[in-house]
Structure formats: C-alpha cells, structure tokens
Fold this protein.
Amino acid sequence: MLLVWDENAWQDYLWWQAQDRRVLKRINLLLADIQRQYRLTYLFIAHDLSVVEYLSDRVGVMYLGKMAELASSEDLYAEPLHPYTKALLAAVPELGVAPPPLQGEPASPLSVPSGCAFHPRCPLAIPTCSEVELDVPLERLHVGAGALPDGDIRRVACIRAREL
Ligand code: SF4
C-alpha cells in the first residue's frame, strides 16, 4: 500500500523538527515501525531536502516536472551530482555546503526553456545545454556506494554528469 505525504501532511513534522530533534527521532522510529508492520510504501513530497533525508531510502529530485536526479538517500546526501540537487542542498544551512551561484528564478511551467530546462540557472551550463532538440536522458551512473532498494542505480539528467 502506498501512503502519500504532501506538503500539508508535513506541517506537524516540520514543527517538531524545529522544536526538538529527540522527539523527531522518535517520530521517525514510529513511522518506520508502522511502515514495517503494515508493509507500507511512503512517498514524501517536499521542497526542503533536509526533511526527507532520514525517512527515505530513495530520493528523486524534480525540476519543472522532470526528474533531475534519482539516487539512494545515502548517495544523494553524500555526493549530489546534478547542479540543481547541489543548489537545493546548499540551501540547507546545517549541511554546510558552499552554495553554487544559482542565477535567476525558476521558469514558468507554461514556458519551459529549451534543451535542459535548468540551463538558464545552471552554473555549469554550456551552449549545447540550451539546444532546442536536446533531450537530456536520465542517465544511469555507477557512482556512489548505495544501490537503490529495487537494485537500480543512481540516475542523473545532465549531459555533463560524467564530468561532475
Ligand atoms: S545539462 Fe547543462 S544546464 Fe542541464 S544541469 Fe547539466 S550542465 Fe547544467
């Protein structure tokens, strides 16, 4: 059975995260127990990567409706590969990652940029990234320690992923 947690369902969790980390740890253990007992799959939807770290086996990062990176939680937080994932993690002060220069605002979903949709904001963009016909695949990369729970490996949608 799949249990979906959207941003509204997070509100109490976020409150405890701000108030008391020990209580938060107990909540995490309780959620894990319930998950095991009822054989549940949790799907968490969040804009803040810091809140899903301890609750997720696998994390998918989306930009303008497309998957930018998919990895085990262990790999994603230890070594983010996609420039957007790096920027998101840099926005979490307690992770202490130096923020890359992220330009501008997200584009409107009604007017998605050509090529890689992230190119207008990407500090690593090269001219090829904006080519109209560019379809950036969610490429499988053998990087990092953790295989995903279903045996898949991490995937990154970036034509420069192998250089990162
Ligand atoms: S494809 Fe280009 S613009 Fe997109 S994330 Fe990679 S380097 Fe940045």
About this structure: The first strand starts at residue 2 and ends at 5. Residues 1-45 form one domain.
